[in-house]
Amino acid sequence: MRCKLRCVLGLAVAAAAAAITVTACGGEASTTGTSANETPAGEIVIGATIPLTGALAAFGAQEKIADEMLVAEVNAAGGIMVDGEKKLVKLVILDSKSDPNLTTTQARTLALENGAVAFFGTIAPPLVIPLSSVSDQLKVPMTHHTPIQAWLGGRPEGWEYSWDVFFDELQMTTTQFEAADLAATNKKVVLFTDTEPDGVVMGGLWTENAPKFGYEIVAHETFPVGTTDFSSYIEEAKTAEAEVLIAQMVPPDAIALWKQMKAAGYQPKVAVCEKCSYNAGWAEALGPLAEGTLVADVWSPEYEYADWEKLLATKSQLGGQRSPGVSGVAISYTVGKVLLDAIAKAASTDPDKVNAALAATNGDYPTGHIEFTPEHYSAIPAVQTQWQGGGTVLVWPEVDGGGELIAPVEGLG
Amino acid sequence: MTQLINAIFLGGLYAAVSLGLTLVFGVMRLVNLAHGEILIGGGYLALFFSGHLGLDPLVSLVLVVPALMLIAYPVQRLLLNPLMAHGAEPPLVATFGLSIIAQTLFLLAYTSNDRSLSASYGLTGVNILGTDVRAVLVIAFVGAIVLVAATHLALTRLRFGMALRAAAEDPEAAVSLGIDVKHVYALTFAIGAAVTAFGSVLIGVAFSLTPTAGLTWLLRAFTVIVLGGMGSIVGTLAGGMMIAFAEQYGALAFGPQYRDLIVFSLLVIVLVIRPQGLLGKKLA
Question: What does the pLDDT profile of chain A (413 residues) look like in tens digits?
């Protein structure tokens, strides 16, 4: 009897585990606008497959905040006039688990089963590119925020129903040198780039741009994601007397690198960590060690663009300090608003009419003025922010309300 | 020389994070797919205790070890023991399910952001023969040797260790000798978790903790124990060293982008030449 009971208990727990696994693989759904089981014909369904878990979950959290806030505002204002009547927006969010394959499956589900007439996109090229493919195949207009060149490279012949608002890597990879110019350095640079596609692309662009700004790349360390030991690279950087460090890495590897630099007594005058320090987790994980790190950003409240106060207030949901995470909310909110404005302008959910309205976008939004090129993108000039006092401060370009670059890197001292 | 010294100390860390997996496999032939989550969970527990009580991460082991044992013992006793009666697959699937449950709980408790344990020995170096080695790696190396030696001695010299080995080699005969095999199994799982706690703290101090990081460490731990010899305690240390040497010298010779290719090629070669691993017993 005891054995039977234990066996049953064991199997029940195993079944529960399996059930959770299956649920997790399928992705959790959340719905904003109406109850999950209710889809009245008079609603506009917007689908979003975003990374709420997995490696890119920090970005998904920002997107969810923005998407839900935007839809709540639109519905509170009575919805969008479509086909002669005001309709509420129903947002269906699925967790892509940071998985490109699951993203594709979920996008098809959203369009074909949930009846999504448009998609709110996400940030990372590995997720956005497959999502854009589905958008084109099924003719579902979508707006997203992903590095422009990487996204354009996903379909050299051009995208049709997919529209991007973000920084252009060609411009963004000059900002590190322009910000470094604010400090007195020997202009010797060490690059740390992983072997992921964006690491390879950015590494190439920095190598190309450095001489244009009078900098010399004295060491370029490349390594696969998951590298745990950077000691020999740090020794090389020290030997080469590199006073400027530029990195493009995933956060866990960068955290290990920063700790090892501190342990090795290597304190560059300027240290940039792209991707790695682009959310509040950087300061949470490293504490004082994070101080002084530079990171590119796409939104600056200092410019006081539309809705900046409201968007800055979302920092309370993201660790309490201004960080690139808040910018993640701002840019997600912006691209979502561009899409809903296009639906309103088209006064229809017909994909071609919405697409035409998107092409005609020409207005001011929280990240600045947006007008799409024929290649379907609108570039936002990247800025450089620095981690200071547990949050980020705009240091380049130098504008009113911005901060001053602190050098050498305080956290590594 | 730098590579050699780095490999030795890094090898100690790899051994420390793999020892619990070796112990559980060696005694129960159980492939614990939740080992990575035990590692990360131990790290989060250390983060909790150091954050709330102001304890140094290594000192927090005083609380982390019993906490992990209290969780691990009933998991084996109530869940995995009954499933083991049905063959090797059900407990394997169950540990996979447990790993997903644990990841979800970590995510709810600590979000997906990276966390790390703050300690001075994570940010300082020790000069050894002209090479700066992080203090945490020196602690890992010394700790791994102590743990491996202590576990080996406990298994070979203590009465409980003998019961454990008896249960490992012939569970039915062990029962007939009056050994409570189910209790021995549950205690082994709990001790495995306790040993893993040291690796948890090292990972948190030297690197970082994320809810899904367990998989990366599980893969590394598997490679270590397969190379060293499945179930061989001393082999775990050897396996850890082999991986670290392969990583350091492979990166030096061929470039760091080939690191995984080199490590897993080495794994395949060792398996072909010596399927039982470096110090493992010959498979039946």
Answer: 344 444 434 444 444 444 444 334 444 556 665 444 444 568 999 999 999 887 788 889 899 999 999 999 999 999 999 999 999 999 999 999 889 999 999 999 999 999 999 999 999 888 999 999 999 999 999 999 999 998 999 999 999 999 999 999 999 999 999 999 999 999 999 999 998 878 888 999 999 999 999 999 999 999 988 888 898 899 999 999 999 999 999 888 999 999 999 999 999 999 999 988 988 889 989 999 999 999 999 988 888 888 999 999 988 888 777 778 889 999 999 999 999 999 999 999 999 999 999 999 999 999 999 999 999 999 999 999 999 998 999 999 998 888 999 999 999 99
Residue A158: how many CB atoms within 10 A of its CB?
11
- Residue A82 structure tokens: 């479509």
In a mutational test of the A interface, the residue from B116, B175, B224, B261 whose CB has the highest number of chain A CBs within 10 Å is: B116
CA distance A296 to chain B (A): 19
Q: Inter-chain contact B113–A58, Cβ cutoff 8 Å?
A: yes
Pick from A288, A289, A293: nearest CA to A244: A293
DSSP helix/strand/coil, A214: coil
Q: Among candidates B281, B204, B203, B210, which has minimal Cα distance to B25?
A: B281
Name the closest residue on chain B to residue A256, using Cα atoms: B207
Among positive and negative, which fits the CA dihedral B262, B266, B268, B269? Answer: positive
DSSP category for residue B80: I
Q: How far apart are CA A222 and CA A220, in angstroms?
A: 6
The answer to whether A233 touches A227, Cβ cutoff 8 Å, is: no
Of B114, B135, B260, the CB nearest to A251: B114
By Cβ distance, the residue of B6, B124, B210 closest to A231 is B6
| Cα–Cα distance for residue pair A85/A88, rounded to 1 Å | 10
The token pair at A15 is 């079944």
The CATH number, out of the four listed (1.10.3470, 1.20.120, 1.10.4160, 3.30.1380), of the domain defined by the range B2-273: 1.10.3470
Buried b (16+ CB within 10 A) or exposed e, A31-45: bbbbeeeebeeebbb
- Substitution target in B114, B181, B220, B264 with the highest count of A β-carbons within 10 Å is B114
List of residues 6+ apart from B213 with CB closer than 8 A: A252, B36, B40, B203
Closest Cα in chain B, distance from residue A9 (Å): 7
